[in-house]
Amino acid sequence: MIIAKNLTVKIGNKIILDGVSFEVKKGEFVAIIGPNGAGKTTLIKTLLGLIRPTRGDVKISGLLPDEYIKLKNGIGYLPQKAIVNWSMPLRVLDVVLIERLKPFGLFRGYTKKDIEAAMHWLSRFGVEDKAFSYIRDLSGGQQQRVSLARCMINSPEILVLDEPNTAIDAVYNSMIYEILRDLSSQNNITIIMVTHDIGAVSAYVDEVMCLNVKLHCHGKPSTIDYSHMLKTVYGDGMNIMLHSEACKNCKWGGNG
Ligand SMILES: Nc1ncnc2c1ncn2[C@@H]1O[C@H](COP(=O)(O)OP(=O)(O)OP(=O)(O)O)[C@@H](O)[C@H]1O
Questions:
Q1: Is the pLDDT of residue 11 over 60?
Q2: Model pLDDT, residue 249
Q3: Phi and psi at residue 190, to the nearest 5°
Q4: Nearest residue to 210 (alpha-carbon basis) of 65, 39, 50
Q5: What mean pLDDT comes out for the span 78-83?
Q6: Whose CA is nearest to atom 27 of ligand 1?
Q7: Atom of ligand 1 at shortest distance to CA of 34?
């Protein structure tokens, strides 16, 4: 569904991405991991057509990203930094529905269907009781869950999430990963998620991409040689605790 070929992004004299090629199939749940400054956000912005590659290209269902976004239901995108100014007096329901009304103009007014859809997604992410609260009165983690509901409101076939677990506590973190896994396995939604939560990767996603300017590895979590990956992608001196099977087999470092 998504094919990236030889993506290279240069800003000034600096090479941010260097010859990155990969394929993501429909319905796959993929995690992109890598250290700070590795080019993860740049890569997903390139997939979304927000950054033009210096070399190479991205095709989504055979289309350039902006063509795909215009023709299909768009791409649900959760950026690393909130695009809505949370200090404004906006209700949670409005924050979610702005995304749905965009194509029709913001003054169309909500239909019963709009409200049902918003409540469905708010409830899926466990914040339906906040629907009529002001977004500024919610905690950071609750705001993040509202943002996830907003990403789903137009029923996109692709979700691109830049660190969705920011500010989310351990209980809701697992809940969100489970919902994302269900969306990919049951609803066939393709999900690309940037995360520093490497531990979660092995338990929930289908594929892992390890990025640091170049794509160092890409494969099923069980096929990744984590100790080698940590050395090449993150550098020496890093240990990782891998979680799998509800943490029954937690191990430090090694091949988990
Ligand atoms: N507009 C820009 N102008 C100059 N340099 C940029 C620009 N955008 C990104 N960079 C640089 O590109 C590199 C990769 O940034 P990017 O945000 O893609 O990394 P990241 O892997 O998402 O990092 P993090 O984990 O910290 O979010 C960084 O060194 C950053 O400073």
A1: yes
A2: 46
A3: -85, 130
A4: 39
A5: 77
A6: 36
A7: 21
How far, in Å, is the centroid of ligand 1 from the Cα of 43? 10
Alpha-carbon dihedral 76, 79, 84, 85, rounded to 10 degrees: 170
> Above 80 in pLDDT, residue 225?
no
Could you give the domains of the chain?
Answer: 1-74+157-246 (3.40.50.300), 83-155 (no CATH)
Return the residue matching tokens 């209980």: 171
Query: What is the predicted pLDDT for the residue at 191?
Result: 97
Dihedral of alpha carbons 136, 137, 141, 142, sign: negative
Pocket of ligand 1 from Cβ distances under 6 Å = 11, 16, 34, 36-42, 80
Which residues sit opposite 211 in a β-bridge?
A: 215
pTM score, whole prediction: 0.87
pLDDT digits (tens, 9 = 90+) for 241-250: 555 544 444 4
Residue owning the nearest CA to atom 4 of ligand 1: 11
